[in-house]
Amino acid sequence: MDEAPVTARDAFRHYLRTGRRVPAHRIVQVKFNPYHDPKNGQFTFKNGVGGSANMSQPPKKPQQATGREDPRIVAGDRAIQQRAWAANPQNPANQDSYTVKPGDTLTHIAATRVGLTVEDLAWLNQMSQDAVIKAGQSLVLPTQAYLDKAKKGFDTAVALETYMQSHGGRLPPNVAHPPSLAEQMFGPGTHEVNDNGYQFTIDGEGRTRLVSGTVTLNSDQKRSKQNQLAAGGSDRLPTDEGGHYIARQFDGPTEAYNHFAQDADFNRSGYRKLENLWAAATRRGEKVHVTIGAEYSGASKRPYAIDVEYTIARLTKRSIYPNRSRY
Amino acid sequence: MTQDILSEGGNKICSIILDQIEEGPRDFFLYAEVDDGVIAPSMVQIYVDHIFWTLPPWEIGKVLQRMWQGSDKSAKWWALTLEIHGDKFELQFNYDPAAQFDEGTDERAMAAITSKFPNLPLQVPPFDPEAQRLEMMKRLARRSASFELDSSGVTQLDADD
Hints:
Shape of chain B: globular
Number of helices of chain A: 8
Low-confidence stretches of chain A: 29-36, 38-59
CATH class of the largest domain in chain B: Alpha Beta
Mean pLDDT of chain A: 80
Shape of chain A: globular
Largest sheet of chain B: 6 strands, mixed
CATH topology of the largest domain in chain B: Murine Class I Major Histocompatibility Complex, H2-DB, Chain A, domain 1
Helix content of chain A: 25-40%
Low-confidence stretches of chain B: 147-161
Radius of gyration of chain B: 16 Å
Mean pLDDT of chain B: 84
Number of helices of chain B: 4
Largest sheet of chain A: 6 strands, antiparallel
Oligomer: heterodimer
């Protein structure tokens, strides 16, 4: 690849093809907004209708027919326009209104939606990321349903591309619904669950492979002793306890998929300290995003290590936690 | 013995970093805290007029752990700095017996970096949670695939990628 900037998605494609990472400084962010060009900030119609416009010229609703056009072309154009308008983040149907509270920042407000970046929020409201916002001010927020739909489209595109790369360029039997990326990576039966704002990827053996989400605090969250005792199944060691991927204090779900058999020392050592660090940052009002990977040996239901990538105030760090006795 | 393990580990880490990060200067600064319960590295790439926050390759984790495990108990370090300039590197260790990994690890990493480069501004790449999730997924799948082929009986954390 040359020195030109690449989108995160293209960088990921490159990684899938070659196993090599593109340096982070060359990566520009992928936007869930399908019509937003992150390179120039322009709003571009991808379907050829209406050319392009920048933020100062927002797209308009589909026009009414005058009755003088060819009805077949009119019908086709209108269908295209309607689809574009339905997928447009500036369509009021895709927006909520948010009234700024004292102490709010764009970062805080963006964290109230899963998949919304502060960059997109600023763009949608036609302001800079470091703009000062005042209590009582009204901002536009994309609805969660809109963000989820855009994310689903992104996931499908990546899954389709991955399928073709691993199948000699052939398309899957159902192009509109290719096997999910998670299923391609972790095997048949892999599925994803969203719970309390966290996304869990669970393989066909019922093992949690990946957890991600933005940390939220909930001091009232309960525990499931039953799931803690059952964690690890027959692979649980005598020295193990049932621990959480996402701790109770972070509103970690009580379901089995949030539990794993962990060495008794595991949660008393580094991992607990890491959780304390996240809690402190969250209380300071900083957005803490975590991605947690569980590493298994063969068919074991007990992870031998937990890999963590966490981002606080845009700074991402990595750490590894071996799941074995320290002594 | 310890010296050999440490220098061999330093060589291996340099090799991994230089192999995986192909573009930009061949100059890096790594700060890592290690004990038997955690491996926590932080890294920057050194440019002429700034330093750039760069995620360390996951693969250096097991090398760091081997270096830590292979060090004599009488000379157990808990943090290291590794400075790479092209094909040369310099390793330094912190042996403070009272020190341990705790909630201040991020602050210590940042302090080590900013004190090393007091006149260079730090640039941070954009954060993309989706790319992070997808890359982690891909990495875990690769690890699983390699383990299915592994019948040597070595502990998985010590197995090669």
